[in-house]
Amino acid sequence: LRDEGLQPIDHRRLSLKNALIVFQVAISVLLLGGTSIFLQQAAAARAMPVGYATEGVAILETNLRFAGYSAIRSRAMLDDLLRRIMAIPHVQSAALLQGLPMTPNSVVVVVDGVQAGQASQGEAVTIAAGPGFFDTLRIPVLYGRAFDARDRIETPRVAVITDRMARQYFGAVNAVGRRFRLANDPNSWMEVIGVVRDTGTGDFDDDVLDPVAPPFYTSYTQSAAPPTTVIARTSDDAAPLVAAMQRELRAVDVSLPVVTAQTMPQRLESSRAAPTSVAALLGALGGLGLVLSSIGLYAVISFAVARRTREIGVRIALGASARQVVWSIAQGMAGLIGVGTACGLVLSVLVMLALRASSSGDVGIGHVSVYRPTIDPLVLLGIASLMAIVGVAAAFVPGRRAALMNPLAALRHD
User: Fold this and answer.
1) Can you point out the beta strands (E) in 51-205?
2) CA angle, 225 as apex, 224 and 231 as ends, to 5°?
3) CB 25: neighbour CB atoms within 10 A?
4) What is the mean pLDDT of residues 93-111?
5) What is the mean pLDDT of the segment spanning 228-242?
6) pLDDT tens-digit map of 364-373
7) Three-state SS string across 49-88, please?
């Protein structure tokens, strides 16, 4: 007798279970696709060009209002703290500023004396700085000068702009001597005293998700508000310098709080931690989904093999090979895996397309900026291959049991 081969496993009595398996596979693929998106974000964060030196830089932030300091007394105390920190061995430079370094604030500026065809008003971001700031972060001054003792609260307001802002709003990199003001304050005219090289902020949101407008720097010395932060550069490791700066703060006034005490690399790492954490979470959920899917596949295939024990025994007795038996098992399994994987991949691609379309504007989704992932066919192929491996692993035991089945025992099976 010539065996015509086994028909694929009939799942008509298992439609609900099959639907659950397909759903589990699709969700697992979707979670793995989401993991790939956040892995892209993490990679983009790692590759993000900062543009200023971070190694060896320590940050110490306090708030003198909590200790009842007046503005005049705050400045005197922080000047004393700065001198103490500068006296720490191996400290090369230090600076005072308001807030944490490279923290941008969005503003609208009006440019004075623009030529025809140039914009007279546009968006920019202001970053707090102060004397010694650019030396500490090693941001090169291209034209003019940096902030120094000449810039006081009673002197005309000045600003240091980036070369990106100079090109965009002044039409030339050397914009020293030009003026601009804040759009919401007619009396806020500032003269450009220097142009520095453009840098990133070091924050994932501001540099990758939604890049900030051209930055410019203002000095705390021309503001009524006192500085709150000291940054310092050392030729050694910055971690011991953080501890030394805290000791100097306590020596000045033990009641002053430490709001922030970290190295600049730690600050950058904290802004990049979110994509990695979300990728790890989605990866874990995707792995759990794979385990549940494989268990479901194993259960479905084992049950189907048990139902067809007599049929498989007859086929083997009539000469069906082990390969034909396994293939009949694999066809049913492949259908479930294929449908679930296809649904999951389609959903993943749709999510990526939605993210790309939604973030192509200025506001992202719900005024929250989102990452624009690339659709990588190799990643999608890898996910599909992983699901195929899971399916093979789930079908191995019941398939092997069916292939090694004793025909006589199968024929006696009820």
Assistant:
1) 57-62, 91-97, 104-111, 121-129, 141-144, 158-162, 179-182, 190-196
2) 125
3) 29
4) 93
5) 94
6) 454 556 777 8
7) CCCCCCCCEEEEEECHHHHCCCHHHHHHHHHHHHHHHHCC
